[in-house]
Amino acid sequence: MRSIQGVIEAPTVAPTEGIYAEQDSELAPGCAGGRSDRAAGPAERREPVDAPAGYRNGHGKPRRLSTMAGTIESRPRVVLPAGIDRCSLTSLQQRLVKTGGRLVKHAAKKGLGNQTVIAADEFTRENPDVGLLEYLYSFLDNSNAIDVGANVGLVSERLLKAGYSVYAFEPYEPVFQTLQHNLGSNKRFHACKFAIGSSDGTMDFHIASDLSGKGKWGDPTLYNSLVDHPMLDDCKFTQTLPVQVRSLESLRRTGEIPQSAGLLKIDTEGFDLEVIRGMGDARYPVVMTEFWDSEHPFGLSGNGKLQDTVAEMKARGYAWHVVIYRVDETSTLSYYLNRDQTVPKSWGNAIFFHDHAVFVRAAGWCESVLPHTISFDSSLTAGGSSP
């Protein structure tokens, strides 16, 4: 088993009753590639300190947040549906003991011996969905990864460090040049200046701008999209540019991407479903897509609905999925399994699995790393099937 830096060393699913301790611590036309040498006492319970509200897609600033037993950096608190007592949940009968920088979950009963060491860096704590993709590298037969909506390469870089060979797609010329500058010398990285959709053609690409006057939204190109969906008062689409669109099926047919890959990551700001519809008969073992709840500002027009994506993926034989979601106003970061419901105002990523054994690995990772949304109350969810 490979050790993946920043995720989990020698992972096992620890017993549900335990104690957390914190300790110190070949190239195709239209594509480019190359090589790089880039390296890769009990805590007091305190009132939550929420991060400022915002809708940054997975690359927010560090947060000082409270869990059920203490305040930690960039580790959102457990949030449970109304009426569920934290202390009554066996799976949550844990406490934090402050001794430094790693989290170690020990068996509560003498002689069990299993433990999970979480040595996450800042990026993984803020983006556990990407950390999960890094972890899954050890359990996939195919090390090719496809990154649709690569932007400047933050996720691609993590996948490269985990061991994947990455085929990345970014249609906007200025961002594509930055992507190439960042990763283009790595021989396992191949960048293509296309958008990806359900069929080949040309479409208008909407360019986002930060109108706050103070850089509130950081890099607004993270919000560029083929979909003219609702935006925010101080972050809006301000221009459109025509871009070439290709389908994954077309790229496979012409040999511009491999015939198979272990991982497909999609982040197209509302166009993910069209990317899936352009997969053809390919069945990538792991597929990650973004979603928006219908009360999230970007989802008000119905784009990015989890229910639609789950239905499409089930029709393609993906029977299992993990949902990792955020609610920015409450600094919530949690996960649940195999439901198509969404928590109001949430956004996040759904990771779909064709192989149950890989899904089990992913579910175990999430159990060790993230607070679990135990059940859904009808007043807390928006649409979807009942649990």
- Average pLDDT level: 77
Give the number of helices: 8
Beta-strand fraction estimate: 25-35%
What count of domains describes the coordinates?
2
Query: Could you name the ranges where pLDDT drops below 50 across 5 or more consecutive residues?
Result: 1-29, 34-113, 381-387
**Strands, count:** 19
Helix content: 10-25%
**What's the CATH class of the largest domain, please?**
Alpha Beta
Q: What Rg, in angstroms, do the CA atoms define?
A: 21 Å
CATH T-level topology of the largest domain: Rossmann fold
Global structural class? alpha/beta
Topology pattern, helix = H, strand = E: EEEEEEEEHHEHEHEEEEHEHEHEEEH
Q: What does this molecule look like?
A:
- It is a single chain.
- The protein has 387 residues and is of the alpha/beta class.
- It folds into 2 domains: 89 residues, no CATH class; 248 residues, 3-Layer(aba) Sandwich (Rossmann fold), CATH 3.40.50.150.
- 18% of the residues lie in helices and 28% in strands.
- The chain has 8 helices and 19 strands.
- β4 and β5 form a beta hairpin.
- The N terminus and C terminus are likely disordered.
